[in-house]
Amino acid sequence: MSVEAGGVTLHVRTVGLAEAVATVITVHGGPGLSLQAMAPFEKLVVPGRRVVSYDQRGAGASTGPADGDFGFAAQVADLEAVRVASGADEVDLIGESWGGAIAAAYAADHPDHVRSLVLFGAVPLDRVEFRAGQQRFLAHVAELQTAGLIPQWRSSVTGSPRTPVGRCS
Amino acid sequence: MGEQDAFGEQWVDRSAELLSSAEVERALVPGAGHLVSVERPDALLARVTAFLGG
């Protein structure tokens, strides 16, 4: 399925029955990875639950924005477009690393549409500490890429993402 | 989070503080770094499955 949002076309994959009561939406990390990174969560599908994953703008099979906007506001709007297209009023969000930051920002902006939030690989909001951790992380990524556990990827984020501060109910 | 996450555990605390009105459950996955879904997918999936109620 494709979803139009903010000048981009998002590639969306849904596993499970459309009439499922519960909907999980996964938000991949990177920036620049793809929904394939969240494939393990498709095992969460049961008769009453479906799993929706999507490639973020400029990642995987989704198109990138002509204006180069990869910021948080655009990412949150994209996630909202995916939720609306799914037909689910309330969802369980699963976000990894960068995707976790998007999911948390979404929960802050749209608390009425979030039943639960699973975050893993939290990242620092402080730029200096982020860079210190990033150096350690990138060294570990190189090991994982050499082992073939993750693909090579390129960061697609530019600009100044909005800090995800807010509440989740 | 992964036990060997390069960004450190304090950021889990910081994230929990930001989500101040949420009930927070924490889990530490042994033998994993930042990309838990790649390094320990089964352990992560088991924890998330339990969180979502099976």
Structure, explained:
The complex is a heterodimer of chains A (169) and B (54). The longest helix of chain A is centred in the C-terminal third of the chain and has 20 residues, at 127-146. Chain A has a 6-stranded mixed beta sheet. Chain A is α/β, with parallel strands linked by helices and 169 residues long. Chain A has helices spanning 72-86, 98-109, 127-146; strands at 2-5, 8-15, 22-27, 49-54, 91-96, 114-120. In chain A, α1 (72-86) packs across α2 (98-109). The two termini of chain A are 29 Å apart. Chain B has 54 residues and is an all-alpha fold. Chain B is 44% helix and 0% strand. Chain B has 3 helices and no strands. Chain B has helices at residues 10-18, 36-39, 41-51. The longest helix of chain B has 11 residues, at 41-51. Classes of the chains: A alpha/beta (169), B mainly alpha (54). Chains A and B meet through β5, α2, β6 and α3 of A and α1, α2 and α3 of B.
How do the SSEs of chain B run, as a string of H and E?
HHH
Total number of helical segments of chain B? 3
Please identify the structural class of chain B as seen in this structure.
mainly alpha
Query: What is the terminal separation of chain A in angstroms?
Result: 29 Å
Class from secondary-structure proportions of chain A: alpha/beta
Estimate the helix proportion of chain B, in percent. 40-55%
Largest sheet of chain B: none
The largest β sheet of chain A comes out as:
6 strands, mixed
Pair of chains with the largest interface and how many residues each contributes: A-B, 45 and 32 residues
Distance between the termini of chain B: 20 Å
Low-confidence stretches of chain A: 155-169
What's the average pLDDT of chain A?
A: 85
Quickly count the helices of chain A: 3
Give the C-alpha Rg of chain B.
Answer: 12 Å
